[in-house]
Each structure stands twice: as C-alpha cells, then as structure tokens.
Amino acid sequence: MASEHPILETRDLSIRFGGHVAVDHVSCAFARGTLTAIVGPNGAGKTTYFNLISGQLRPTDGRVFLNGEDVTRTSVAERTDRGIGRAFQLTNLFPSLSVRENVRLVAQAKARKGFDLFSMADSHIELIERAEHVLAEVRLLDVADQKVSVLPHGDQRKLEVALLIALGPQVLMFDEPTAGMSVDEVPVILDLIRQLKRDFDRTILLVEHKMDVIRSLADRIIVLHNGALVADGEPAAVINSPIVQEAYLGRTPEETTHG
Ligand SMILES: Nc1ncnc2c1ncn2[C@@H]1O[C@H](COP(=O)(O)OP(=O)(O)OP(=O)(O)O)[C@@H](O)[C@H]1O
To answer: Where do the ABC transporter domain residues begin and end (predicted)?
Structure first.
C-alpha cells in the first residue's frame, strides 16, 4: 500500500466518563517502522488512549485512522483483521493446551480469511510452519509442548508476544510488557520487541513507566497528562523537558529512570 498516510493516526480523539475527560483531543500520527512510547503519570489516560485505538472503547469525539481509513466505528475484531494487534492477556488463552497449540490457533484464526478448499493441505502445512517459525522467533521451541498453565512467568510473557506476531499485525501495541517480570526476564522481552521493529519494520506503541526501558527502545516519546498530549519528541529531549518533570510530580530525571 502506498505510504502517503501515516500507518496510524488519531485526530482530536477524546473520551469522557461522566464529567471526567480521560482522553482530551489527542491528535497524533505514527509513522511506519517507529517505536513510540506513551508515558504519563498514573491516571493520565494512557490505557484509555490504547483502548480507543484498539477499539475496546468508542470515543466521545474525534477519529482513528489506519492507513488513512477511518476505523473509528469499527469493532476490535475488524481492527485486528486490518492490522492493529494488541498484546494478548493470558486470560484469553487456553491454559490446558500447549504453547504450540495456542500459537497454531491464533495463526489459524488469522488465516481463516481467504480460506480455499483446493489449497487446504498447503494452507495447513503453511500454518504449521508459520507457528514453528514464530515459536523459534521468540525462543519458545524448547517448551512448545508444555501446557500454558505450567509455564514460568517469563515464558508466558514471551508467549503473549508470540501470539501477537502470529496475528501478523502492522501496528503492535504493548501495555507495560515488562510489568511483574524478574530482572533477568526483562532483557528477553526487550530484545524481542527490538527484534520485531528491526526485522519486521513494524510500528510499535508501548505504554511504559520504566524510563530505562523507554530509553533503550523508543524512537519517540509522547506524554499524556490529564488526558491531553503535553509533549512529543525525541526521547532525551522529552525526558528532560520541564513539562515532563512537572508531569511526574517534581521527580528528577534520575528518579524517573527507576519509575
Ligand atoms: N471505564 C471507565 N469509567 C470511568 N472512568 C474511567 C474508566 N476508565 C478509565 N477511567 C478514568 O480515566 C482516567 C485515565 O485512566 P487510564 O487507566 O487510562 O490511565 P493510565 O494513564 O493508563 O494510568 P496507569 O498508569 O495508572 O495505568 C482515570 O482517571 C481513570 O479513573
């Protein structure tokens, strides 16, 4: 597809819950192949902004565009089909099935469109190969036959990334991907995200509190505060900007690092 449009764009996107404006006229365009971190204090509207982009919530005002097409009124499922992939919550998986079976199921769901009886056998082989490729990509082949319910936490988070890759999205959304991870698990997930951007030229949106994670991954940071976009730019400049320091309630950049 021609790339005259940003892959994703929100224009004047807003949502009110009663009298509270959780996302306040956020206009932002995301270019292909970039990783944007979305930061802001607790309650700033980051998750709500994500929910508006992925379709879990409908805005009160404003629009969401994917490849220049207005998807504001489309369902989560349609946005997923069109290329917006949000990292899975493990509660959506089948815990009694194996890692491999879960990845195959997602690959199958993705492939169901365009299903053709005459190429059924080929499709099946392709699907299996695709699942194996994804498992290798996230280094889960060793535990591919284990049930999801017995996986260590770090492997469960890797599986979330595997399932997202299996969907083949153009835009990948991660909401605090390192939350609850041990110190040695964090670099594995960060490497995976880095690899996704580098090898697949994907557009990535990341909600993250840890500034060291953001520094190591992001091309750009946008800052939400009270639902509004208050800063946008290259990481070093944004992190050190007065408005960000104020948004983080007077914390110094060093304190923010350990955020
Ligand atoms: N469904 C809802 N109904 C009412 N208020 C909501 C709803 N969802 C979010 N809010 C409110 O909207 C504001 C933004 O919440 P949101 O969860 O998006 O913030 P956040 O930046 O993701 O915070 P955190 O970093 O703590 O996850 C908060 O004041 C929250 O209480």
So the answer is: 8-251
Tell me how long the chain is.
Answer: 259
Domain boundary among 168, 188, 217: 168
- Name which residue sits closest to atom 4 of ligand 1, judged by CA: 17
**What is the Å distance from ligand 1's center to 45 Cα?**
5
Separation of alpha carbons 86 and 57, rounded Å: 14
Note whether 12 and 29 are same-domain residues: yes
* CATH code for position 70: 3.40.50.300
Kindly state the percentage of the chain with pLDDT values over 90. Answer: 47
Q: Which residue, 168, 199, 214, sits at the end of a domain?
A: 168
Residues 55 and 174 in one domain: yes
Give the domain range for residue 10. 1-83+170-259
DSSP E strands, 46-185 = 61-66, 69-70, 84-86, 171-175
Q: Which ipTM score applies to this complex?
A: 0.96
Q: How far is the CA of 99 from the centre of ligand 1 (A)?
A: 32
Instruction: Name the domain count of the chain.
Output: 2
Cβ contact 215:234 at 8 Å: no
181 and 72 together in one domain: yes
**Residue of 13, 14, 16, 17 best suited for mutating to test ligand 1, as the one with most atoms within 8 Å of CB:** 17
Cα(211) to ligand 1 centroid in Å equals 21
- Predicted TM-score (pTM) of the model is 0.86
Would you say the CB of residue 46 lies under 6 angstroms from ligand 1? yes
- Phi and psi for 252 in degrees, rounded to 5? -80, 165
Instruction: Summarize pLDDT for 87-123 with one digit per residue, the tens.
Output: 866 566 788 999 999 998 888 877 765 545 445 555 6
Does ligand 1 lie within 6 Å of residue 44's CB atom? yes
d(CA 180, CA 250): 26
Give 127 Cα–ligand 1 centroid separation in angstroms: 38
